[in-house]
Amino acid sequence: MLAIIGGSGLAKLPVLEVTHRQVVRTPYGDPSCALTFGHLGQQNVVFIARHGHGHSLAPHEINYRANIWALHNQGVKGILSIGSVGGIRADMGPGTLVVPDNIIDYSWGRKHTFFDGPERPVVHVDFSNPYDDGLRSRVIAAVDAAGKQAVSQGIYACTQGPRLETAAEILRLERDGADIVGMTGMPEACLAREMNLPYAHLCLVVNWAAGKGGSATVDFDPATAEAGMNDVTAVLQAMLS
Ligand code: HPA
């Protein structure tokens, strides 16, 4: 069974034929919301809305450990994470789908490991390639099968939020090599790695990052975001048909 973590703009998955919902408690506290189980195409899927129902959780308030633990506990074989991002690179404007292949983490103060405390001695997982190649390839093939287009590589910068970045910060991220910027890709990806769960990220650019095309908020166009999320849904359907 594949897990899908839905981000902003994808708090529900209308194409999912829901069978049941389950509230899960974890040793790390409560996940963002109940897990939703169902079928998408031929496959069983479990879905969780990262920001909770009604988008009540800011990026730094999300209990990433509880979310990943809950999905792992259901025996999922992989996690496809959906995220909204700002575009930094010139060919990554609003409406673009990106399947990033690496991460730079600028977030701080988040619980970012399962291995802490006396009973869980430190483990240094290999995170050179944070995303799973097999799952990334499946997403990229599904983009094709759905008749959509995506940029199939890119570096995802994870900022702390909830505020958007300054233009100077985006220039710094760009100098660091980042192509897109979001607030929730970490520690989600490294917690999945700690659980040995294949993890890939499908990102939708919803605005130009600060200083790249006007103002990131003024620039945000709900119609573009909605059309983009329809593309994301089409990709999910193609992937799981
Ligand atoms: N910055 C950070 N996170 C985001 C942005 C942005 O411009 N757009 C969507 N998520």
From TrEMBL:
Single Gene Ontology MF annotation: S-methyl-5-thioadenosine phosphorylase activity
Highest rank taxon of the organism: Bacteria
EC number of the protein: 2.4.2.44
Pathway in which this enzyme or protein is active: Purine metabolism; purine nucleoside salvage
Site residues (Important for substrate specificity), renumbered to this chain: 165, 218
Binding site for phosphate: 8, 50-51, 184
Pfam entry (one): PNP_UDP_1
Keyword Ribonucleoprotein in annotation: no
A GO BP annotation: L-methionine salvage from methylthioadenosine
Reaction catalyzed: S-methyl-5'-thioinosine + phosphate = 5-(methylsulfanyl)-alpha-D-ribose 1-phosphate + hypoxanthine
Family membership noted in the UniProt record: Belongs to the PNP/MTAP phosphorylase family. MTAP subfamily.
Additional record remark: Although this enzyme belongs to the family of MTA phosphorylases based on sequence homology, it has been shown that conserved amino acid substitutions in the substrate binding pocket convert the substrate specificity of this enzyme from 6-aminopurines to 6-oxopurines.
Subunit text: Homotrimer.
Matches recorded under HAMAP family: MTAP
Function recorded in the entry: Catalyzes the reversible phosphorylation of S-methyl-5'-thioinosine (MTI) to hypoxanthine and 5-methylthioribose-1-phosphate. Involved in the breakdown of S-methyl-5'-thioadenosine (MTA), a major by-product of polyamine biosynthesis. Catabolism of (MTA) occurs via deamination to MTI and phosphorolysis to hypoxanthine.
Protein's UniProt name: Probable S-methyl-5'-thioinosine phosphorylase
Organism whose genome encodes this protein: Aquitalea magnusonii
